[in-house]
Design goal:
Radius of gyration: 14 Å
Structural class: mainly alpha
Helix content: 40-55%
Number of helices: 4
Distance between the termini: 26 Å
Strand order of the largest sheet: 1-2
Order of helices and strands: EHHEHH
Shape: flat
């Protein structure tokens, strides 16, 4: 999940209530590192299934339609 930095701080406090098996299923991404998020999500979901507003092209200006 891509979140603001404050969520990471809160997660560090509450993650202790979850089992290790559950914690291993949750990954928190910093909003400044969308390339890492996109790489991980596109390995699980076909790119054509990812809405355009969440595709990496939006963040890197690789898309010719982006101004």
């Amino acid at each position: 999940m891509v979140t603001p930095w404050v969520f990471s701080v809160v997660w560090n406090f509450v993650k202790g209530v979850f089992s290790e098996k559950t914690r291993d299923k949750i990954k928190i991404y910093n909003t400044s590192n969308k390339a890492e998020w996109f790489s991980d999500i596109s390995s699980m979901v076909p790119r054509e299934s990812i809405p355009p507003e969440y595709q990496l092209d939006i963040y890197t200006n690789d898309n010719n339609n982006c101004s």
